Hints:
about 200 residues, 4-stranded antiparallel beta sheet, globular, 2 domains
Amino acid sequence: xxxxxxxxxxxxxxxxxxxxxxxxxxxxxxxxRQYEAEYxxxxxxxxxxxxxxxxxxxxxxxxPEAGICLDFVVILNFDSYAxxxxxxxxxxxxxxxxxxxxxxxxxxxxxxxTGFETWFTLPNxxxxxxxxxxxxxxxxxxxxxxxxxxxxxxxxxxxxxxxNLLGAWLVTFVGVLMLTYVVMPRLTKLFYRWxxxx
Length: 198
């Protein structure tokens, strides 16, 4: 296959306004189906390299799914924009990108997001402008209320033997995980036309 001439170019779409806030990079890359196994192994290696950099806060990989997203999408979290840029601009990352050249078919795109807009981004539409703030606030309020009402009666009895603050923290942690990985992606798809009117 014809690989890119050099390591894929970074296309940063949104710049965070404050350097000391947590930041998310949504990195999308098209990979031909016959090279997906090689890409998976490569992705494990580069993800492990990223974990060694200051401020790394976690990584989530969304794999191609017919009708939803044709790309591999990596959601990379850092505690600040400066730390994220340290990784994105590092020689270590560039060396890993060169290794991917034989089995990638397009340049990667890096979309840097902060705040609630990360909850309202679909993988194949990562470069879109964030929805109106009032719409994000309404949908987030609805989602948080529903998750809290669901989790409290289930989890609070389980955590009753624990100190109150620890139990509340655990319920909150589970709730944030549900919102991030289950609830908000589905609500964003369901209310997409309202969030992003033509």
